UniProtKB/TrEMBL annotation:
Keywords: Hydrolase. Its EC number is 3.4.24.-. This is M23 family metallopeptidase. Residues 156-245 form the M23ase beta-sheet core domain. GO terms for molecular function: hydrolase activity.
């Protein structure tokens, strides 16, 4: 008779010990993956406190999945943050590059404008220096070149006379170097200027001088004041154009001035 024991039936449930053992096995398996090894301990502690909650092994599995999801979410967040940081860095680099390019263009434009202004100034100065003016502003020729008469030792006028009151400003007709400044005998106080083209101009009967020998002069620069010194019958300016520095090399002053663009 079988009073002392009974055979395990087909539908007999597993013992509590067997279920707990299975739970330990499941947690151990998860722990070996390196994902929830440290989180398995709270589950053991809970199962040791009492029979209020039966260990089935599913609690550990669910926790592992949650942790894996959190890790993935954190990784996604880090990737997003890294991408945002990279985009920001790229945007800043692009902005700096655009700013540098804008500065370079502005500097190049300013340089080009400055160089253009300098070229224009040089050209204007070149034109000014190559421009001739009348020796007396607003005056006229009172005695022509080669006019005859007993007042001139050669028998004729070697220059032209410009009408001028005493003390009128006498100007250099063009750029040049003063080669004579002082008393010139019959010419009175006079100035002789050598010009870049090798010609000379003379300014006679001056009341006073404003330049000295060796001085560089420019067109329109004051060289003295008109007067009536030397062989003169009254205030005026005697003007000569010459091919040389000395008397006797005179050429037609009106033709000379007109050839340099001066209207008389």
């Amino acid at each position: 008779m079988a009073f002392g024991s009974r055979a395990a039936g087909k539908h007999r449930g597993s013992s509590r010990l067997s279920r707990k053992t299975a739970g330990f096995a499941g947690v151990a398996a998860l722990a070996t993956t390196g994902v929830v090894g440290t989180l398995a301990a709270p589950a053991f502690a809970a199962s040791d406190k009492g029979p209020s909650m039966e260990d089935t092994g599913l609690n550990a599995v669910v926790t592992a999945e949650d942790v894996a999801g959190q890790i993935e979410a954190q990784a996604d967040s880090q990737r997003a943050a890294a991408e945002a940081a990279a985009l920001k860095a790229q945007a800043e680099a692009d902005a700096k590059a655009r700013a540098a390019e804008a500065r370079q263009k502005a500097e190049q434009k300013a340089k080009a404008e400055r160089e253009a202004a300098e070229r224009a100034a040089r050209e204007e100065e070149r034109k000014r220096l190559n421009t001739f003016v009348s020796p007396l502003a607003g005056s006229y020729v009172s005695t022509q070149y080669r006019a005859g008469g007993g007042m001139w030792s050669s028998g004729s006028h070697t220059g032209i006379d410009f009408h001028a009151d005493e003390g009128s400003v006498v100007r250099a007709v063009g750029v040049g170097t003063v080669v004579e400044a002082g008393w010139g005998g019959a010419y009175g106080n006079n100035v002789v200027i050598r010009h870049a083209d090798g010609t000379y101009t003379q300014y006679g009967h001056l009341n006073s001088l404003s330049v000295s020998v060796g001085q560089q002069v420019t067109p329109g620069q004051q060289i003295g004041l008109s007067g009536s010194t030397g062989n003169s019958s009254g205030p005026h300016l005697h003007f000569e154009a010459r091919t040389g520095a000395k008397y006797g090399s005179d050429i037609d002053p009106i033709a000379y001035l007109r050839s340099h663009g001066v209207s008389l």
